[in-house]
Automatic annotation (TrEMBL):
<protein>
    <submittedName>
        <fullName>Uncharacterized protein</fullName>
    </submittedName>
</protein>
<feature type="domain" description="Menorin-like">
    <location>
        <begin position="74"/>
        <end position="310"/>
    </location>
</feature>
<feature type="domain" description="Menorin C-terminal">
    <location>
        <begin position="364"/>
        <end position="504"/>
    </location>
</feature>
<keyword id="KW-0812">Transmembrane</keyword>
<dbReference type="Pfam" id="PF10223">
    <property type="entry name" value="Menorin_N"/>
</dbReference>
<feature type="transmembrane region" description="Helical">
    <location>
        <begin position="27"/>
        <end position="49"/>
    </location>
</feature>
<dbReference type="InterPro" id="IPR019356">
    <property type="entry name" value="Menorin_dom"/>
</dbReference>
<dbReference type="InterPro" id="IPR057489">
    <property type="entry name" value="Menorin_C"/>
</dbReference>
<dbReference type="Pfam" id="PF25161">
    <property type="entry name" value="Menorin_C"/>
</dbReference>
<dbReference type="GO" id="GO:0005615">
    <property type="term" value="C:extracellular space"/>
</dbReference>
<comment type="similarity">
    <text>Belongs to the menorin family.</text>
</comment>
<keyword id="KW-0472">Membrane</keyword>
<keyword id="KW-1133">Transmembrane helix</keyword>
């Protein structure tokens, strides 16, 4: 009996020792794997999760609204020191009430026979500054300010980013890298080479916030100028092509804001980017334009670098009451803003960038992808589909008459195949071709078709109003000369042309969606002011609902 008890205790003791040894081995194995994970990943959290949760980031890519807590997630409260290119300016910025310090970066002797491979903080044409970027960074790293480096030429990028890479462990602050990589309004200055810029960032210093912009110029009258849809789409295409994953900010000049908000809001919405608005001292400040940005962009998505005390104080005072101080046409545009939640995308998944909606506009790029209204309205006394389409010749291709343009379908009962959508088809061609016809309606429905033509304007832009009167449909078209300015939101009183077609009684009046689709890829269509309205007629009154 005693022998059995002794053997049992020995077995228990050996089992405990084995268990402890097993736990120790597993713990050491876990520790080794954890060290490998952190060294490879650059931190405990996965990189994709740090990107989605900016509050958890640590390092140069940190969102400045999380870094500067006193800003209260409001970009208008971030204070900027611009062109901090001298010792005196840097000292004032480091000890002053600034959050972000910006410096211009070129090579010493830039563009001369004495050009060296040493980055300096200076702007053209002053190329002999002795204040090097390394000296500048050595002083900045002792403080808790964020920095923005504005590369004026591509030559300075590689050497500067190599320097940042060597100092990465010393710079635990937000770092923005800026370059004007595309030509903007009235610009005569060459932009920074986008290909070399993105390659160098990816190779030497990918952990940053990318600030991208357009070069701009001066003109005596900028009332009709702005960042056009072509300029904005060029930027979007670059970001998609280079698969940019860094936090993005687009830098724009206040003087060209008035006619650019729909384009810029669309760009920021589709790329989950922010906007930085800066002013030039040579520009006449327009307070309504400042309020326009504040009104359209949420506080956490808009930054303001104003070197004008009047603008800064006005922004500080009225930022959260901006609706009361915008141009009246801004409020008029509110009535026709595109509602992306009222439509769903259908078509080929591989064409995921072919439909790009925001609260301002919708961009259609491919006939293989189209949008379908979520609501399936019953045919009532009167149904209106209103909107505006702006055709862009992005590929410099000739349009095909009767084919290149936008198709709009009513009473669609089959639309799963983009090549065989059924219903009443309203076609608006780039060259002014107009048509109402039945498409894929079956043998039991008589054919119907009516054509017309409207003289196209220089803007290749049309405003349409399509009306379903149960047994008759009407398409009214205005050819517009302007689709870009804020003033273009105003409607003309008379239509240029109107088409009417009687609908066969065999065509069903059930609940069907409405569909918009490009017929080929020779144009890109920007669609806005899209609005479905139903009017119910009664003996006593008329009710109108907007969807």
């Amino acid at each position: 009996m005693a022998t059995d008890i002794l053997q049992t205790k020995i077995s228990q003791l050996l089992g405990q020792r084995y268990f402890k040894k097993s736990v120790l081995v597993r713990f050491l194995l876990f520790l080794i794997l954890l060290i490998i994970w952190i060294s490879v990943n650059g931190g405990l959290l996965p990189g994709f999760l740090r990107h989605r949760l900016p509050i958890l980031r640590v390092g140069p890519e940190l969102n400045i609204l999380y870094y500067f807590e006193e800003a209260e997630r409001d970009g208008s409260k971030i204070r900027w020191s611009r062109a901090t290119n001298t010792q005196a300016k840097l000292k004032a910025a480091l000890t002053g009430k600034y959050d972000m310090i910006e410096a211009d970066v070129i090579l010493k002797g830039q563009g001369t026979s004495k050009q060296a491979m040493t980055p300096i903080v200076s702007d053209l044409p002053a190329v002999d500054n002795e204040f090097t970027l390394k000296m500048w960074l050595q002083q900045v790293k002792k403080f808790t300010k964020g920095i923005k480096l504005d590369f004026r030429t591509i030559d300075a990028v590689e050497m500067s980013l190599q320097l940042l890479k060597r100092m990465k462990n010393e710079l635990k602050i937000p770092i923005w890298l800026h370059a004007d990589i595309l030509k903007g309004p009235y610009s005569s200055r060459l932009p920074v080479d986008a290909t070399r810029f993105f390659r160098n960032v990816r190779t030497f210093f990918p952990t940053c916030t990318l600030s991208l912009g357009w070069t701009t110029g001066y003109h005596t009258d900028v009332s009709q100028a702005g960042y056009t849809w072509d300029m904005v789409l060029d930027m979007h295409d670059l970001i998609i092509h280079w698969e940019i994953s860094q936090p993005l900010v687009f830098s724009v000049r206040l003087a060209y804001i008035k006619n650019s908000i729909p384009q810029l809001k669309w760009l920021c919405d589709t790329l989950q980017a922010s906007l930085l608005v800066w002013n030039d001292n040579e520009d006449k400040p327009v307070l309504e334009d400042v309020m326009y940005v504040a009104y359209r962009f949420p506080p956490e998505k808009a930054f303001f670098d104003f070197q004008d005390e009047y603008l800064s104080s006005h922004l500080k005072r009225y930022r959260h009451f901006s609706k009361n101080y915008v141009h009246p046409l801004v409020l008029e545009r509110d009535q026709v803003k595109f509602n992306p939640y009222a439509w769903v995308k259908m078509g080929l998944y591989i064409e995921e960038n072919s439909i790009l909606p925001s609260s301002e506009s919708l961009v259609l790029k491919s006939p293989a992808v189209y949008i379908v209204s979520i609501s399936k309205l019953k045919s009532v006394e009167t149904l209106h589909l209103k909107g505006r389409v702006h055709f862009l010749n992005r590929k410099n291709q000739e349009a095909i008459n009767g084919q290149t343009g936008l198709s709009i379908f009513f009473r669609s009962f089959s639309y799963s195949d983009y090549e065989k959508i059924s219903g009443i088809r309203f076609f608006i061609g780039v060259n002014g071709d107009l048509q109402i016809s039945g498409q894929h309606l079956g043998k039991n429905v008589p054919e119907f078709k009516k054509r017309a033509r409207v003289t196209p304007g220089s803007a290749s832009c049309y405003r349409f109003d399509i009306v379903d009167l149960r047994h008759e449909v009407v398409m009214e078209i205005n050819s517009l000369h302007d689709c870009d300015t804020l003033e273009s939101v105003q409607h003309e009183e008379t239509s240029h042309i109107s088409l009417r077609v009687n609908i066969p009684h065999e065509l069903a009046l059930g609940e069907q969606p409405y569909i918009l689709k490009m017929e080929d890829n020779k144009r890109v269509a920007v669609i806005d002011e899209l609005d479905i309205r139903t009017i119910y007629q009664t003996k006593k009154k008329k009710n109108m609902n907007s969807i």
